[in-house]
UniProtKB/TrEMBL annotation:
The keyword Signal does not apply. It comes from Kocuria coralli. The gene is tsaD. HAMAP family: TsaD (MF_01445). It catalyses: L-threonylcarbamoyladenylate + adenosine(37) in tRNA = N(6)-L-threonylcarbamoyladenosine(37) in tRNA + AMP + H(+). This is tRNA N6-adenosine threonylcarbamoyltransferase.
Length: 364
């Protein structure tokens, strides 16, 4: 099926078009530059930027794909989770398009959409290297690690259309959010991820031993008796620990060792994320792990994830970065999967749901 996908859950306005598993267009406009001086995404600014960017982004995607709205089989839009006002812009636009064209409309889950890029063929290659079938199933178990400015989650994906479970999630800050906040403490620019990644290249990851959140026996338990937070994350204590170190240097009037702190902070984040993801995968029989979200760009995360997955016989799928960060193609990919699976469209009577649980793949 020929499906158009619309994404506006955070600061990216994305419109993607797929034909079955083929990616025809993936146009993204980001308002990130407008959030720089605030050091984080400001919801009102993001919403207004979506309003301004939507029509040009749609037109560009249609032109790139060489298709018209009339040719579409369906339209899909991110219904949640995400920022309420931002989601509402995309949902309203999608409803207007569906109403005007008479096309079926699917309100879909943003997190499941991130995993759906594994279905796509892009630049002549399968994103997941042939590991996923047309239904989005991996023969020997599929897991996903989503790490972005708003999310840090480990998912078990039985069937992209009907069976997705949350194995673990952050109980406070998201990984990308921790990068952004720590970058601020270190006087680095927003977004903090790339800035810390770069600063860390010249630093010693063992210079400071920062806390690994929810990683001691009390939270992890054992394989026989898993702790409540075995696969969960916490990054707020880490952020506080970095703040203390920075304050101590400032109090002494000494120069802050930015590279060492950046490298040590990064090591703590990446160590916990990869350790818990690999543990969740092995304990749940998931032999393929797909990485998604903007933090997937992190050089140390990629390195350690490769290393630890290889050690445990897990095949790691790292999609091209344009498909890891928020985009419309992933929404279209999930929409196409739902159409193929005969899942009923949502229709026009639904509202965006900022807290949509991952178990709900599409609204009905
Ligand atoms: P959502 O959470 O809804 O998926 P988002 O806009 O918050 O959306 P993305 O756009 O996917 O998230 O990613 C942005 C985040 O990724 C920022 O927090 C940024 O700091 C982080 N990031 C980008 N590059 C890197 C990197 N090299 N290392 C670590 N973090 C990075
Ligand atoms: Mg973003
Ligand atoms: Fe996202």
């Amino acid at each position: 099926p020929l499906v158009l996908g619309i994404e506006t859950s955070c600061d990216e306005t994305g419109v993607g078009i797929v034909r079955g598993r083929d990616l025809l267009a993936n146009t993204v406009s980001s308002s990130m530059d407008e959030h720089v001086r605030f050091g984080g995404v400001i919801p009102e600014i993001a919403s207004r930027a979506h309003l301004e960017a939507f029509v040009p982004t749609l037109e560009q995607a249609l032109e790139t794909a060489g298709v018209t709205l009339e040719e579409l089989d369906a339209i899909a839009v991110t219904a949640g989770p995400g920022l309420a006002g931002a989601l509402m812009v995309g949902v309203s636009a999608a409803k207007a398009l569906a109403l005007a064209t008479g096309k079926p409309l699917y309100g879909i889950n943003h997190l499941v959409a991130h995993v759906s890029v594994g279905l796509l063929h892009h630049d002549g290659a399968a994103v997941a290297g042939g590991l996923l079938d047309a239904d989005g199933r991996a023969a020997d178990g599929l897991g996903a690690l989503l790490v972005s400015g708003g999310h840090t989650e480990i998912l078990r994906v039985g069937d992209l259309a009907a069976d997705v479970a949350l194995l673990g999630a952050t109980i406070d800050d998201a990984a990308g959010e921790a990068y952004d906040k720590v970058a601020r403490l270190l006087g680095l620019s927003y977004p903090g991820g790339p800035a810390i990644d770069a600063a860390a290249q010249g630093g010693d990851p063992a210079a400071f031993r920062f806390p690994r959140g929810l990683s001691n026996a009390k939270y992890m338990g054992s394989a026989e008796e898993p702790g409540k937070h075995r696969y969960d994350f916490s990054f707020s204590g880490l952020k506080t620990a970095v703040a203390r170190v920075v304050e101590a240097y400032e109090a002494e009037g000494e120069e802050i060792p930015v590279a060492d702190i950046a490298a040590s902070f990064q090591e703590s984040v990446v160590d916990v994320i990869t350790r818990k993801a690999v543990l969740a995968a092995t304990e749940n029989g998931l032999n393929t792990l797909l990485l998604g979200g903007g933090v997937a760009a992190n050089s140390r995360l990629r390195e350690l994830a490769e290393e630890r997955c290889a050690e445990h016989g897990i095949r790691l799928v790292v999609p091209p970065l344009s498909l890891c960060t928020d985009n419309g193609a992933m929404v279209a990919a999930l929409g196409a999967r739902l159409v193929s699976g005969g899942i009923a469209p949502t229709g026009l009577e639904f509202a965006a749901d900022p807290g949509l649980p991952v178990t709900q793949v599409s609204l009905r």
